[in-house]
C-alpha cells in the first residue's frame, strides 16, 4: 500500500469551499439562491466558500439537493477539508503521518480479509429443494412470496391477511392459497393453529403510539395496536424467523418510545433480533426507499449480519416500457405541476431520474413521484410544448398567449411570423410584454411527459412482468407503493440462508 506524504503545493488543493463554489457556478446559481435553500445568510455562505467559516454538517443534505450532488461526495469533501486543516495546523504533523500510515496498512489487511468472505449474491442456498412454510400479515401483494418465487424456492403459504379487498384480489391472482387461510382482519388470526408450522413470518404494521402504564415497556403496553397483533401472532405461532418491516421514521416515532417498546416486546417474546435501515438502491433496485427491517430468530445461537450494500448497476430508465398507452401522458395542468421548480426541489416530483423517488400509496394519480419526458421529432397540432430539463414552466406560453404571439397581426398591422430562428432578432427591453413572433424571439421544444405505468412501478418494486394486474391502475399504483421491495427481501433471505432454517 502506498504511503501518504504531505504535499506543499497549495495550488493543487481543492477545499470544501472551492468544491461547493464550483458546483454552484456550474449550475448558474447566485449565492443568495443556495443560501436561502439551506437556510443560512448569503454572507455566511460567501465566507464558507472562501474557507473563512465552516458549514454545519446538518446543512449537507439540503446542500446536496440544490447542488444536484450526491450527499456522500459532499461529505467526503467536507470531512477531508476539515481533517486537512486540523492536520496542517498541528506542528508535529509528520509524526502523525507515520501513525496514520501504519493504521491504514493494518486497515488494508483487514479489508482484504473481509473481501474474501462470500458475497451474499454469490451464496448458494444449502437446501435448494426445501419447502419454506410462510405466514404473512398486512400481506399486500405478496412481496416475500414473490421473493421466494424469484429465488426458485418452493413455498407453502400457511396464511396471509390484509384488510384491503383489492389487495386480496391481486394476491389470489398471483399466489396459491385457500380461502380458509386468508384473513381480512389480523385480529382473527389464531396463532396457536400454526405453532410449529411456520418457518418464516413477515409483516409490517402502521406506526402507532403506545399507551405507557408506568415505565416498563413490553408486550402488554402494545395492546390495542396493530403491532400488538403482529407480536401476538409471533408469541402464539413461534415462527423460526420473523421479519418486521416499517418506515424509517419508526426509530424516532414518539421520541423513540415506540421503537423502544417494540424492542422490549421482542426481548420478552424470547427472540434474538437484529435491526437496520436498508435502502433499496443499495440492493440492486434504482429506487430511493429506506425502510427499517427487524429480523428475529428463535434460535438464540444465530449471529446475523445484514447483507452488505452492492453497487447499483441499473438506472430507472432500464425499467421503462418500450411502448405506453396514451392515457399515461399528462395534459397541460399536470405538466405545470410536475415541472414546477418548487415541487421538484421539495422532491414531490422527479423527471427522468436515474434513481426513482420512494414509491407511495398516493403516487402518480395526484402527480407525485417519478415521470418520464419523451422527446418528439414532430409535434402534434395542439400539443403543449416544452423542454422539461432546462426551462421552467413559467417561460412557456399559455394557449391564449400562443395564439396571439403566432398570429400575423391585425387588419391594419401585419408582420412576418417565425420561431426557432438561426439568427436572433434584436432583443428588446420590452420583450417581457410578449410581442408577436415577428418582433420577439421564440423557440419551441417538442416532447411529452408521462407518468410511470403500473407495470413500471411494479418492476421498480422487484416484481417481474409475470405478475398479473387484475385491479384498476389506481389500485395497482397504491399496492405497488405499499409493498416491500422484493430485491431487499431476496438479499435478506440469501444472507440468512432461509433453506437452512427451514430444514
Describe the protein's architecture and organization:
The chain is an alpha/beta fold. The protein is 34% helix and 12% strand. It has helices spanning 16-27, 31-37, 42-49, 60-66, 71-89, 93-115, 143-150, 165-174, 226-237, 257-268, 332-339, 341-345, 399-405, 454-459, 473-482, 486-496, 498-502, and strands spanning 131-136, 154-161, 182-183, 200-203, 241-247, 272-279, 290-297, 349-351, 369-375, 447-451. It has a seven-stranded mixed sheet, sandwiched between helices. The protein has a three-stranded mixed sheet with strand order 8-9-10. Helix 8 (165-174) links the parallel strand 2 (154-161) and strand 3 (182-183). Helix 2 crosses helix 3 and helix 7 (143-150) crosses helix 16 (486-496). The longest helix has 23 residues, at 93-115. The two termini are 45 Å apart. The relative contact order is 0.11.
Please render the helix and strand layout as text.
Layout: H1 16-27, H2 31-37, H3 42-49, H4 60-66, H5 71-89, H6 93-115, E1 131-136, H7 143-150, E2 154-161, H8 165-174, E3 182-183, E4 200-203, H9 226-237, E5 241-247, H10 257-268, E6 272-279, E7 290-297, H11 332-339, H12 341-345, E8 349-351, E9 369-375, H13 399-405, E10 447-451, H14 454-459, H15 473-482, H16 486-496, H17 498-502
Parallel strand pairs: 1-2, 1-4, 2-3, 4-5, 8-9
Antiparallel strand pairs: 5-7, 6-7, 9-10
Helix pairs in contact: 2-3, 7-16
- How far apart the termini lie comes to 45 Å
> What profile does the largest beta sheet have?
7 strands, mixed
Q: By helix and strand content, what is the structural category?
A: alpha/beta
Strand content is 5-15%
What is the approximate shape? globular
Strand order of the largest sheet: 3-2-1-4-5-7-6
Mean pLDDT: 80
Number of strands: 10
Amino acid at each position: 500500500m502506498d504511503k501518504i506524504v504531505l504535499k506543499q503545493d497549495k495550488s493543487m488543493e481543492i477545499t470544501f469551499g472551492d468544491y461547493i463554489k464550483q458546483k454552484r457556478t456550474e449550475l448558474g446559481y447566485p449565492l443568495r439562491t443556495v443560501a436561502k435553500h439551506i437556510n443560512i445568510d448569503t454572507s455566511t455562505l460567501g465566507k464558507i466558500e472562501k474557507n473563512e467559516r465552516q458549514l454545519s454538517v446538518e446543512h449537507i443534505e439540503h446542500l446536496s439537493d440544490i447542488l444536484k450532488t450526491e450527499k456522500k461526495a459532499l461529505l467526503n469533501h467536507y470531512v477531508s477539508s476539515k481533517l486537512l486543516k486540523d492536520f496542517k495546523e498541528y506542528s508535529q504533523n509528520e509524526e502523525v503521518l507515520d501513525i496514520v500510515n501504519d493504521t491504514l496498512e493494518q486497515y488494508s489487511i483487514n479489508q482484504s480479509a473481509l473481501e474474501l468472505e462470500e458475497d451474499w449474491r454469490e451464496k448458494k442456498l444449502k437446501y435448494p429443494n426445501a419447502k419454506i412454510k410462510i405466514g404473512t400479515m398486512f400481506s399486500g401483494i405478496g412481496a416475500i412470496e414473490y421473493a421466494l418465487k424469484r429465488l426458485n424456492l418452493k413455498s407453502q403459504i400457511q396464511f396471509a391477511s390484509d384488510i384491503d379487498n383489492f389487495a386480496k384480489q391481486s394476491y389470489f391472482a398471483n399466489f396459491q392459497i385457500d380461502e380458509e387461510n386468508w384473513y381480512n382482519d389480523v385480529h382473527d388470526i389464531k396463532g396457536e393453529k400454526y405453532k410449529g408450522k411456520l418457518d418464516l413470518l413477515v409483516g409490517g404494521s402502521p406506526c402507532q403510539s403506545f399507551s405507557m402504564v408506568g415505565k416498563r415497556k413490553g408486550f402488554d403496553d402494545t395492546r390495542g395496536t396493530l403491532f400488538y397483533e403482529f407480536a401476538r401472532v409471533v408469541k402464539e405461532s413461534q415462527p423460526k424467523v420473523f421479519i418486521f418491516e416499517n418506515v424509517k421514521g419508526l426509530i424516532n416515532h414518539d421520541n423513540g418510545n415506540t421503537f423502544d417498546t417494540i424492542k422490549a416486546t421482542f426481548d420478552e417474546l424470547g427472540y434474538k433480533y437484529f435491526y437496520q435501515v436498508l435502502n433499496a438502491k443499495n440492493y440492486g433496485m434504482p429506487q430511493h426507499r429506506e425502510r427499517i427491517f427487524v429480523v428475529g430468530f428463535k434460535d438464540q445461537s444465530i449471529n446475523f449480519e445484514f447483507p452488505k450494500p452492492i453497487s447499483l448497476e441499473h438506472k430507472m430508465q432500464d425499467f421503462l416500457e418500450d411502448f405506453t398507452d396514451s392515457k399515461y401522458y399528462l395534459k397541460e395542468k399536470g405538466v405545470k405541476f410536475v415541472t414546477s421548480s418548487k415541487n421538484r426541489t421539495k422532491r414531490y416530483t422527479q423527471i427522468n431520474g436515474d434513481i426513482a423517488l420512494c414509491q407511495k400509496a398516493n403516487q402518480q394519480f395526484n402527480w407525485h413521484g417519478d415521470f418520464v419526458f419523451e422527446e418528439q421529432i414532430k409535434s402534434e397540432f395542439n400539443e403543449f410544448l416544452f423542454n422539461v430539463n432546462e426551462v421552467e414552466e413559467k417561460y412557456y406560453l399559455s394557449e391564449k398567449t400562443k395564439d396571439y404571439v403566432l398570429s400575423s397581426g391585425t387588419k391594419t398591422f401585419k408582420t412576418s411570423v417565425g420561431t426557432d430562428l438561426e439568427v436572433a432578432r434584436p432583443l428588446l427591453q420590452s420583450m417581457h410584454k410578449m410581442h408577436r413572433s415577428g418582433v420577439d424571439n421564440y423557440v419551441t421544444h417538442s416532447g411529452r411527459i408521462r407518468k410511470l405505468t403500473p407495470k413500471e412501478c411494479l418492476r421498480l418494486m422487484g416484481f417481474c412482468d409475470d405478475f398479473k394486474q387484475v385491479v384498476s391502475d389506481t389500485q395497482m399504483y397504491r399496492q405497488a407503493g405499499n409493498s416491500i421491495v422484493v430485491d431487499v427481501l431476496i438479499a435478506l433471505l440469501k444472507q440468512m440462508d432461509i433453506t437452512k432454517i427451514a430444514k
